[in-house]
Amino acid sequence: MQKTASPRPGRTAVTGPMASLAGLLREWLPRQRWFAGKDRPVTDLALLSMTELYPGCLHLLVHAGPAAVPAPGGTGAAPAGDCYQLLLGVRRHLAPRLGRALIGRAEDGPLAGLTVYDALHDPRSAQLLLERLRQPGTVGPLRFEAAPTAEIPAGLPPRLLDAEQSNSSLVYGDAYILKVFRRIQPGVNPDLEVPGALAELGCRRVPAPVAWLRTTHPQEATLGVLQPYLRDASDGWTLALRALSSDADFTAQAHQLGQAMAEVHLALASAFPAGAHEEHGRTAAAMISRLDAAAHCVPALRPFVPGLRTAFSALTTCDTGPPAQRIHGDLHLGQVLRAGREWFVIDFEGEPSRPLAERCSAQSPVRDIAGMLRSFDYAARQRRPWRPEWARRCREAYCAGYAARAGWDPRKKHGLLRAYETDRAVYEVLYEARHRPDWLSVPMAAIERLAVRGS
Question: What is the pTM of this model?
Answer without folding.
Answer: 0.88
